[in-house]
Amino acid sequence: METRYSRLAGRSMAFVLAGGRGSRLNELTDMRAKPAVYFGGKTRIIDFALSNALNSGIRKMAVATQYKAHSLIRHCQRGWNFFRAERNEYLDILPASQRVSESLWYQGTADAVTQNIDIVDSYGVDYVLILAGDHIYKMDYEIMLRHHVETGADVTVGCLTVPRQEGSAFGVMKVDEADRIVEFIEKPKDPPGMPGDPDQCLVSMGIYVFDWKFLRALLIEDADNPGSSHDFGTDLIPGIVKGGKAMAHRFTSSCVKDRADSPAYWRDVGTIDAFWKANIDLTDFTPDLNLWDKSWPIWTYSESVPPAKFVHDEEDRRGSAVSSMISGGCVISGTEVRNSLLFTMVHTNSYAVLDHAVVLPYVEVGRRARLKNVVIDRGVVIPQGLVVGEDPEEDAKWFRVTEGGITLITQSMLDRRARA
């Protein structure tokens, strides 16, 4: 039995949908798609889906891009260029290339696959794993593939277990005792509970497993349907629920954890508040997401930079970091850093204070700046003496302040402030 199923990943491909802007991240996605947004000190969001596939044994992958894709494409070319075609390994980047019509880009998640049927055919795979490229989690897809094959499903849907009152924000799966999906409800006001646990419900993760022959025929049929929006969650999955066999695969069955008592970690960092919190959570003594686990590494492009450096040791001018993550190339010069996460090549200057700050790469913080509860975009130059996080009304005049009290700082915001 084990020998029979151990090769499922080798007979599969991962098709990563990475074209979305992520508009709720506001200015963070002005220049990059959501999957290309930085996370965790040195990685990008898309690295989690790709790393899960690689660690699961999948060596054939495609990344469909659309919105402002240059940053994402460049990252994949630099960080994911180790696949070797002579070993039957591939990572193809599939920009929306108007293959169906010169006036049409990808019209939906299913259409992104439909427009690339010939490329998927060329892989010669039996199974296709459809993945969202914009979530943070660690998952063994081989286990989900086995579940799909063992149950004889037409589609297997990856599902999270969430409190029933939170289900209204998701596509909810109503299942029977065997976890067969009997109804798919998009953002219901009154989500159905799970069998045996009415206070919890199953919601879609945007992860699907199909037999490729089945999906191929379904995509061609959907493409000819003028009433379809050509979307997996809106059209294809509900159609299979009604007329085929759709199974729910619980994330708790295949999530990768380093400790038995660890929670099943999954985050949608789709808002500034959620993005800030997920990054700051990594500075905890024992974070729920373990980026130090060598048995399930998160692969990425690593710049060649020197180690982090801390300088000055005087009263009020001491380069220090407490309960923080400091990436390579950073210079902490006479700055107090607390509960913060600094990405690659951040330079800070004397008498500055960073408190609960998420600082993206290549930022420079001027002298005597005090920054609290902030997200600072890549390449920003913080002027001397800037104070953010102490007066929300003043901050809101120049920067984006969220409902949760987090301030997003970009260079264009600072430039506007300087001109005022």
Describe this structure in words.
This protein is of the alpha/beta class and 420 residues long. It is 24% helix and 28% strand. It has eleven helices and 29 strands. The strands form six sheets. Strands 1, 4, 5, 6, 8, 9, 10, 11 and 12 form a nine-stranded mixed β-sheet that branches. Strands 17, 18, 20, 21, 23, 25, 27, 28 and 29 form a nine-stranded mixed β-sheet that branches. A five-stranded parallel β-sheet has the order 14-19-22-24-26, with no helix packed on it. A hairpin with a 2-residue loop joins strand 15 (313-314) and strand 16. The longest helix has 12 residues, at 212-223. The radius of gyration is 23 Å and the shape is globular.
Task: Pick out its properties.
420 residues, alpha/beta, 9-stranded mixed sheet, globular, glycogen biosynthesis, GlmU/GlgC-like_hexapep
Oligomer: single chain
How much of the sequence lies in strands comes to: 25-35%
Helix and strand composition category: alpha/beta
What gap, in angstroms, lies between the N and C termini? 70 Å
The major pleated sheet works out as: 9 strands, mixed
Query: In one word, what is the shape?
Result: globular
Low-pLDDT stretches:
1-5
Can you count the helices? 11
What is the rounded Rg? 23 Å
Number of strands: 29
| Percent helix range | 10-25%
What is the mean predicted local confidence, pLDDT?
93
GO biological process, one term: glycogen biosynthetic process
Pathway: Glycan biosynthesis; glycogen biosynthesis
EC number: 2.7.7.27
Binding site for alpha-D-glucose 1-phosphate: 106, 171, 186-187, 204
